[in-house]
Design a protein that fits this description.
The protein has 290 residues and is α/β, with parallel strands linked by helices. The protein has helices at 3-14, 22-34, 38-43, 53-65, 70-74, 98-105, 126-135, 149-161, 175-179, 201-204, 218-221, 229-244, 261-267, and strands at 76-79, 82-85, 115-120, 141-146, 167-170, 187-192, 249-255, 272-277, 283-289. This is Release factor glutamine methyltransferase.
């Protein structure tokens, strides 16, 4: 089987299951099997696949037919121009989450060595690593927390890949910080892309958008309640932190789902809340100033 034949076969297999991405998916998966770029396979259509490559490619196409996310099949996902290792222990980074990074970088003149940036529920570490990459010259302190040790292992791998100095702590939300408040400075930035799908998420999301989510960690997708449970817990923990460190200033960046804007503003009713829309024009990010 040549590269052209493999692409034709793969695209035909995926056409009905992935109608919007079947061509790109087949190209990415074949390039992965050949350890080459898309440009290479598109310009060398006559090359024959080896005996090992053909069944490997067929296996990946079959998995993609079952709606396995391409990022898991490739073992990586791009976020903010950087490649991140991903597996089923972590949520796949989404383009809309880049809004958090954009918003913080837009105020980088206020960030210095007296600033600590904490990423809550860090997962793959994509947010905190992207920030570290772009803010390293300002020398703030970087911390990521996650309740999952296996997720933290992925974040550590990505940190080493991108050669950043980030401290990762195991625990729920801000619990590790409350136990060790000496780790942070008085100028605190918190990022939080917490599980915000509600308990009915499987029926509320439209197919095929929801199909690939079955392979992502449920604990990273939903709070099994109204989608705002963890933000309430985070708000309580921030108040506990302010009791320990009343002199602290805190700026919190929270990603949320469509329709949750009013609920999130109610949680942080005593603070100044700014809502930012994503590129689709949907309310996506809350910036909360303490």
């Amino acid at each position: 089987m040549t590269i052209k034949q493999a692409l034709d076969w793969g695209q035909q297999q995926l056409l009905t299951k992935q109608p919007t991405s079947y061509q790109l998916d087949a190209e990415l998966l074949l390039a992965h099997c050949l350890n080459q770029t898309r440009v290479f396979i598109l310009s060398h259509s006559e090359i024959e696949l080896s005996e090992e490559q053909q069944p490997d490619y067929e296996r990946l196409i079959n998995l993609r037919q079952e709606h396995w996310p391409v990022a898991y099949l490739l073992g990586q996902q791009e976020f903010y121009g950087l490649n991140f290792t991903v597996n089923q222990e972590v949520l796949i980074p989404r383009p809309e989450t880049e809004l958090i990074v954009d918003s913080i970088l837009a105020t980088k003149e206020k960030i210095d060595s007296q600033t600590t940036i904490i990423d809550i529920g860090t997962g793959s570490g994509c947010i905190i690593i992207a920030l570290a990459k772009h803010l390293a010259n300002l020398t703030p302190h970087f911390i990521g927390t996650d309740i999952s040790q296996t997720a933290l292992a992925v974040a550590e791998t990505n940190t080493q890949t991108h050669q950043q100095n980030i401290k990762f702590l195991a625990g729920s939300l801000l619990e590790p910080i409350l136990q060790q408040p000496e780790l942070i400075t008085n100028d605190l930035i918190i990022t939080a892309n917490l599980p915000y799908l509600d308990k009915d998420w499987e029926t509320s999301l439209q197919f095929p958008d929801s199909a690939g989510l079955q392979y992502e960690p449920t604990v990273a997708l939903t709070d099994q309640a109204d989608g705002l449970k963890y933000y309430r817990q985070l708000a309580e923990q921030i108040q506990d932190l302010l009791i320990l460190r009343p002199e602290m200033t805190i700026k919190l960046y929270c990603e949320f789902n469509e329709g949750q804007s009013l609920g999130l503003q109610a949680i942080f009713a005593q603070q100044t809340v700014t809502i930012v829309k994503d590129l689709a024009g949907l309310d996506r990010l809350a910036i909360i100033q303490y």
